[in-house]
Amino acid sequence: MYKKILILLIVIIAISCKKEPKNIEIEQPISANLLKSQDVLNYVGTPKTIKDKKILMYSDQGAWFAYSFPDSINGYGGFSGPFLMTQQNGIWSSPALSQLAIKQNGIEKTLIPTKQISYNSHLEQEYTQKDFKIDQELTFLSGHTALIKTKITNTSKNKITLETHWRGSIFTEDIFLRKNGNELEIISEKSNAIGHIKFEEKDAILLKENKYTTKEQKIILQPQESLEKEISQTFIFPEYSWELEKQKINQTIFEELIEKRKQEKEAQIVALLNQKRIEFDEEKYKQLLAKTIITLQNNWRIPAGEIKHEGMFPSYHYKWFHGFWSWDTWKQAVGVAKYDPDLAKKQIRLMFEFQKEDGFIVDVVYRDTTIEKHNYRDTKPPLSAWAVHKIYKADSKKEFVAEMYPKLKKYHYWWYAKRDHDQDGLCEYGSTDGSLIAAKWESGMDNAIRFDDSKIVKNQEGAYSINQESVDLNAYLYAEKQFLAKLATILHKEEEAKSYINEANILKEKIQEQFYDTVDGWFYDTTLDGKKFIKGEGSEGWTALWAKAATQDQANAVVEKMLDTTKFYTKVPFQTMSADHPKFNPLKGYWRGPNWLDQAYFGVKALRNYGFDKEATQATKDILKGGKGILGKGEAIRENYHPITGEGLNAQNFSWSAAHIIMLLLEE
């Protein structure tokens, strides 16, 4: 009796341990919050040339490469690209570097996608044939590697036999392929990053010049049976270990990874939703918050080359924005801190890594200085203490404040040592090389009309100023004193905090007295002696309100002009220049009329600071509605917008625009 029971148990165990073909799995549903990110950007497009920049691209984990969905037979069966930011300010490696080909009864099937869906966590597409379907998913394992899982399922009632293989080719300019066992390497003389396509062991590679195929594999599928194939694509810089990355790839279970990414992205969306102002409770604003996250995610980069900390491009989409700017960084960090304070901190560290002994912060830095040199000719408006304080408000960790405080203090007083020509406590924009163009760049508002007649004056060797004192610069410095006082208090440096407050009070009076025109009811730049206004109403006029440096009466007058539909309350309110000025030209004037969302945010915050909450909420809604493609799915968030027509202008997928949308929609 016992012997029969023992034999039966052995049989049951043997049956249960037998490896069965993988059947169709019931996928975990996408959560309601992650669903808000579904297709918020349109990634569809197959690159036609190596420098085709018409297509939006998806990346994650700080990778220096990105993908899209194919829209032609040249890419079907895979994902477009990848687009490589590892070289030449961004080039496409291929229409589709890894493309699945399938034959049935010896005839290759034409694959046309029946579904292409993006989420902040991953990309997925489906191809449906008469007897089978193909599901493909792409997600990022790390800042070096993307994993692609392909599942082929027999949807018929009969057994089917298929032959499958991978194939691909690269744009031949500046890149070539090299075989290494069951891996392909992508090499370029213009980058020290090496690409690796890792196939399954049975996928023998046949390489001919810049094209490859893998050996055909016959697969037999029973009805409803599935077969999965996984490949990895890695682009890794020499400071990282390919061997360690390969181990990580081998140890990763795709289903667990994609679930991790889903949870990660959902948590980010939830973090923003939990801080959202009650006035913006409609679904369209919730969806927009998901779009802001993916916009910033696509511009996120891990350390490489000259860059020692993680940071964000202004836009991967525009070739001259493949660097890291100080002004952009302060603004991006404030937005990112709302859902990822650690990433916000890394961005701040990136810029301060390049701080000079005298406190100077470089304007922009790059990974590869053989492509572009760091720009030490100027800095950018001082908003770094604001950013650090906002990060502290997000996670209440004093360690980062203690780390950054002495650096922030040194940067703050650099302005008074190197950019106060007449030593009257009011600073000017300027340059290190004596050039007027770099001095205009330092303002961040390169060709604003207030600088049309500017000249350069020398302060000392290596330090020059424009011959005018700027209201926005001094408003920022006033705000920075307030934030430095708060940071000093956090660190129990009470005497230093009092000193900042005393300085701020003195500066506040100077701002109110020198820059405000009582006749016009507006804040303007002035000549160095403070005796003459440099007229032309621009967005710098409300920075004193953003910084809380204006009196209530001054604010009332400024707000009246801001709400005037002939001046600043256009289709996309609070643009950079009054619409009734003769030099207003949004299409040809970079800072002569377009609506930049950072300046629009400063305007909205200015209203809130002085009790115009109802007007601020309505202006926010009008800004987001007026800018074409901000709300809704598909279109990218733009660098700036035409204030009259609402058309998106200049670079797509712009980081500080996304960051300031977060600020507009969230509680402070």
Percent of residues in beta strands: 15-25%
Number of strands: 32
Between the first and last Cα atoms, what is the distance in angstroms? 76 Å
Mean pLDDT over the full residue set: 94
Q: Measured on Cα atoms, how large is the radius of gyration?
A: 28 Å
Q: Report the helical percentage.
A: 25-40%
Low-confidence runs: 1-26
Number of helices: 16
Major β-sheet annotation: 9 strands, antiparallel
Task: Specify the overall morphology.
Answer: elongated
- What structural class do the secondary elements suggest? alpha+beta
Structural notes for this entry:
The chain is an alpha+beta fold and 668 residues long. The protein has 16 helices and 32 strands. Residues 1-26 have low confidence and may be disordered.
Fold topology:
Elements lengths: L1 H16 L4 E2 L41 E4 L11 E5 L6 E2 L6 E6 L2 E2 L4 E6 L4 E6 L3 E9 L4 E10 L5 E10 L6 E5 L2 E5 L6 E5 L6 E4 L2 E4 L2 E5 L3 E12 L5 H10 L2 H20 L9 H16 L1 E2 L9 E2 L11 E2 H11 L4 H12 L11 E2 L18 H12 L2 H21 L11 E2 L4 H8 L12 E5 L2 E4 L1 E2 L1 H20 L3 H21 L1 E2 L4 E2 L1 E3 L5 E2 L8 H4 L5 H11 L34 H13 L3 H14 L11 E4 L6 E5 L2 H11 L3
Antiparallel strand pairs: 1-18, 2-3, 3-4, 5-6, 5-11, 7-8, 8-9, 9-10, 10-18, 11-16, 11-17, 12-13, 13-14, 14-18, 15-16, 19-20, 21-22, 23-25, 24-25, 26-29, 27-28, 29-30, 31-32
Helix pairs in contact: 3-4, 4-16, 5-6, 5-7, 5-16, 6-7, 7-8, 7-10, 8-10, 10-11, 14-15, 14-16
Comma- or semicolon-separated keywords:
668 residues; nine-stranded antiparallel β-sheet; 16 helices; 32 strands; elongated; disordered N terminus
